Amino acid sequence: MLLYLLRRAVLMVPTLFGITLVVFVVMAAAPGGISSQSLVDGMNLEPETRQALEDYYNRLYGLDQPAPVQYVRWLNNISPVGFEREADGTLGAFTLFKGSDLGVSFRYGRPVTDLLAERLPITLLLNLLSIPLIYAVAIAIGVQAARARGGRFDVASNVFLLGLWSVPTMLAGVLFIGFFASEQYWRWFPTAGLVRREAVDQTFLPWLASGTDLLVLFALLGLSTALLVWAAARAPRRARRYGGAALGAALGYLMAADLQGSTPTILHGILGLIGAGVTGAVAGIPSKALRIVLAGGLAIGVGVGLARVSGVEIVHGGYLLDRAWHLVLPVIALSYGGLAFLAKLTRSSLLENLAADYARTARAKGVDEETVLWRHVFRNSLLPLITVSATLLPSLLAGSVIVESIFSIDGMGKLAVEAVQTRDRELVLSVTLISGLLTLAGYLLADIAYAIADPRVSYD
Amino acid sequence: MNTARGGGSRWGLWLGFGLVTVLLVLMMIQVDRQWQRMAEMTRIMQEQAEDIRRTRGLLRDLEQTLRSGDLRVADASVRASTGVSGLDAFERARRAAARPDYASGDWLMLAFGTGLRTLTPLVSADAYASEVQAYVIESLLTRDPDTLEWRGLVAEDWSISEDGLTITFRLRRDVNFSDGERLTARDLAFTFEFIMNEVIAAPRSRAYLSKIKSVTALDDHTVEFVFAEPYFNSLQLAGTLDILPEHFYRRYLDDPRAFNESRGLLLGSGPYRLADPEGWTPDQGRVELVRNPRYWGPVDPSFDRIVWRVIENDSARLTTFRNQDIDVYGARPREYQRLLDDEGLRERTLNFEYMSPTAGYSYIAWNQQRGDAPTRFADPRVRLAMSHLTDVQRVIEEVLLGYAEPAVSPFSPRSPQHDPSLQSIEYDLERARELLREAGFEDRSGDGVLQGPDGQPFEFEMTFFQDNEDTRRMVLFLRDLYARAGIVMRPRPTEWSVMLENIQRKDFDAITLGWTSGIEIDIFQMFHSSQTLEGGDNFIGYRNPELDRLIDAARAEVDEDKRMMLWQQAERILVADQPYTFLFRRNTLAFVDERIANLENTPLGLNLMSVPVEVYVPAPLQRKR
Prior knowledge:
The structure holds two protein chains of two kinds.
Chain A: H1 2-29, H2 36-39, H3 47-61, H4 67-78, E1 82-85, E2 91-95, H5 112-147, H6 152-166, H7 169-180, H8 197-200, E3 207-208, H9 211-234, H10 237-260, H11 266-283, H12 288-309, E4 314-316, H13 318-354, H14 357-365, H15 369-406, H16 412-421, H17 425-453
Antiparallel strand pairs in A: 1-2, 3-4
Helix pairs in contact in A: 1-17, 5-6, 5-13, 5-15, 6-13, 7-13, 7-15, 9-12, 10-11, 13-15, 14-15, 15-16, 15-17, 16-17
Chain B: H1 2-68, H2 71-84, H3 91-97, E1 107-112, H4 127-136, E2 141-143, E3 150-152, E4 155-160, E5 166-171, H5 185-196, H6 203-208, E6 212-219, E7 222-227, H7 234-239, H8 246-249, H9 256-260, E8 272-274, E9 286-291, E10 305-310, H10 314-322, E11 328-330, H11 333-340, H12 343-348, E12 349-354, E13 361-366, E14 369-370, E15 373-374, H13 380-389, H14 392-398, E16 404-406, H15 429-438, E17 459-465, H16 469-484, E18 488-494, H17 496-505, E19 510-515, H18 524-527, H19 545-556, H20 560-577, E20 580-582, E21 584-586, E22 588-593, E23 601-602, E24 605-606
Parallel strand pairs in B: 1-10, 17-18, 17-19
Antiparallel strand pairs in B: 2-3, 4-5, 5-7, 6-7, 8-9, 9-10, 11-22, 12-22, 13-19, 13-20, 14-15, 16-21, 23-24
Helix pairs in contact in B: 13-15, 19-20
């Protein structure tokens, strides 16, 4: 195994090398290319000024040399072993310990490493929140749909997921902002960024006016959660449906009241009906786990709402909640596409295995259906999900390009787009290097996960 | 069943472990935040201790003076200096502060459309960074927004020598930087030395200031600028030099890399400052200035803070403005028109259409030389005909919805450089046909397209920047207009970097672009024949010896009236010759939240961002932060 890992790690080097070579060639061949002229973009410069700027850039980055020389120079810079680079751009002595240097971004005039260190955590935060969310929800939906193939849940979730999968992220993001962040409709979430300026000066956790308020809040939260989770888990199906519909209708009415005041209008009716339909349908989902999770989420909202109504004074929400509040829309926008895809994949892979001979044998032995599903079929169905996980990371990185620019979040994606637009060679090469590395690491992880999930796979 | 329970407890273990980890991480973040906060408090307390020490020193000096009986003299000099400040840069701010509803407080919330690279002066090159720097760094002089005359800011008064080569400024004695250090003439001398040092990555500023031979501090409060040659804009050059504090920036001469790669090294004497003059980073997604507690000026700025958020998506920015989370929204013509019909928005906002003097003009440049051969646009009759065919009035009405004015020449119609008797060229199809016929262009083959004297059809490409919707619409409109006269124009949408390369190599037929403008602008770089060299801004190969003479004379003329006469003569040549077809000057269109009071259009544009700060939020409209 160790040998295999080592071999894979060594094989990564030529792949990365190929990636940078292709990127470099494409950049050098693009119309406009990379030259000191393209860096000096100010049209209002006097010629002497411009000449001075161009000379400066040429000296700094060696842009007046032929492209292959530039590429080799760049390789030397990033390699930890090679020739020292002197301040004036010439090469010094060969050394084994010079350390790799990703260079200085043309546009920002700052070391690329610094830029990446700033941006990478933000993108990773978005993705680390999205991936577990995608997997948890997709597996829950997929398993439930496969279990009752052709049932009402299967058909409904199929249509719904197909719809989700077809909505482009760009449109969804703008619609989210237009409907759920604008005071024209419902201003529930912030429009942009990752934190409100005011929250930076606040405490980390929410701050309530007094201790009794805290108690009241916890009591109400506990009460509503216990009640709703109990109802979701234990109540008979018919009671759940009616209860859910009533709750949904009330929420729909409140949404309309937020827009047009509390006198009933057609809008109140429509939104009440939609709310009743959605919550009623959700309350009727056969999967208990899915119901409990959804009911728990709803219960926290209802509990906080009740606490606000009953006079609990929240002095401020705190930094943590503010950050979470800013992440809601971006994370949803980032994950719904992958979620739809993965849920469909889970369903089809489970169906295939449920009909397999070994599942029938297990049932014939008298193993109960739950154990067949989770111990036998689910484990075997994981393999395609693991395959997809290797490509999920790069596609999420690509997806965060769109999400980050819509929600004005300064992450890697936005950096990459800006770098390509402005022909920032060092930055583009480094960003592709990092995303290439992440992708290859994703493949490697997937291969290791194969071995863990399936004893038949072995690399020795 | 047994295994299931065992599995359950294992899952529970993992869940508990995960929960504890998350809690630990959250706790660490919280402690970290407290630590940061404490560091900030320590810094503020140190600053205050320094202030107290300085005040004590001043008191001791005062006591000394009292004992020695020199008080009367000192008192007289104080009175004299306040007498002079009747005509300083703070006149308008004083008037604003005297208004009955004036109140200080609240934050001014603004937004940028793109992220900033750096806030460090000299290294930063974009307009956004200079918007921030304008609040933090001050210069010797500033223009009065009403009269457009120079007023002293840090300078008390100034004198120019007979030959115009030496300018001497006398500085105010009470100016200090936002960290409490005194601003002296030595800081100015240092600023010049700093910019001129090759190790600092400021080639742009260096070239700009190359006309200055030396800057010398004659004493603590007198500074002398000596110019190498007479230059018409010398007062502006010296007077608008941003004053950098020597005690803060000096150390970077030894470590230029730290300066050139820095993100936010910003300290000055202005009304606002960065809370930490070295600590700003672009990843915060915003820029935040706090009121300078040691501001020397006679009028304190009104806002507690000025915050710029970075919101790149247009619709998100508009929504944020609707939510009243930002105070200003700049709109494009079509959007502006649509938003004007939005009752909900108009109730809560003020809208402004104004002509900013720096807004500049758009033009179509006709390339007169490709390779070594002159093109058909080398004939002034053809260029004039093209200008007659370009129906600027209709472009303004249909593309820009009237939010622009026709441009006559490079000079703003509100500038004394402009000769009011000159008019922009009208749309006139007949006259254009006549001119083209004179130049030898006629439709001989009968296919509706003109042929030149050499039998070639009159076809050309129009290069334009692809991402601007208004420009695209204008070019398509012009294509139809030109087709009516039998001229085939092929639009060529181009990426910005490719466009720059085309200009560099002079590889285009016609190109539409814009130049920024100002109160008094120099046209040397665009129209002087010496600038047709490789990389010069006279990229159309336009040569006119008479114009060259006028430009040279005007640039060396220090007497304002004589210079304006020369500029006007140059303008007459430009209008007759039409090296460019001058299109229009756009209005700036903006919505401002209603809580901002005392907004006013001045000849320098809207006074929202002007320094000293004149706008404020009346007390009842202020928000609790």
